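Appendix B, Record 12. Input sequence as logged:
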Amino acid sequence: MELKGRNAIVTGAAGGIGAAIAAALQERGARVLLADLAEEVADTAAKLGQPHWIGDVSSANGVAELLDTAERELGQVDLYFANAGIAGVTGLGGDGDWDRIIDVNLRAHIRAAERLVPEWTRRGEGYFVATASAAGLLTQIGQAGYSVTKHAALAFAEWLSVTYGDEGLRVSVLAPMGVNTKILWGEDSNAITGEALTGQRAVAEAGNVLEPADVATTVMAAIEAETFLILPHPEVLDMYRMKGSDYDRWLRGMRRYQAKLQGN
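Logged structural output:
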């Protein structure tokens, strides 16, 4: 897809990957609405000279308000980056923990697609980009909710592509490992010590920790090529193939890795 002159929404855009994607889109001539629950998104957007929206995409009303704002500020939406996400609590968590992370990491994607996909298929063009992380292809040590919702986000994106790809809908999934953001280093409000630190170490030690701008450059190239799976860490594909070739061996290896990180 040619990005110049396009209108895009990026959620989770106050900082990190979302802010870097918004900046990369602007550099390529797109107009961008930066969205985030954090008020800092106003400063990020101001630096880019782009509009912003402060709100919570974890609710149906929030997503509707975001899309209404985008239509007023930009006109028709051409690309939607479902990038907002939380790490969630460690371990199994409880019902409230699951409700929160499913709403943010999965239902926000579904609710946006419910509104956008009918319009995009009528036009014969539109682009949905989901941030799923390598945890969506592999798994996340320590945090069940994060691993499950990232798997689900990937599965939903696959379904969108299979179902509507012949009607003009383009879909990509961003699946990086470690990126230098708050969610990696435990600055997310729900990421705590203990098992969470084990999970953070697992990601940080598995490969190079990239800067958000580097990830955004990879994302732009993938969109222009209309590539489904975006892998800033190419080694994730090798890991995924290893997992699929011998699942039991892969699970044993992950248990050994977890024990090593925990000092056992």
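Residues 189-199 have pLDDT under 50 and may be disordered.
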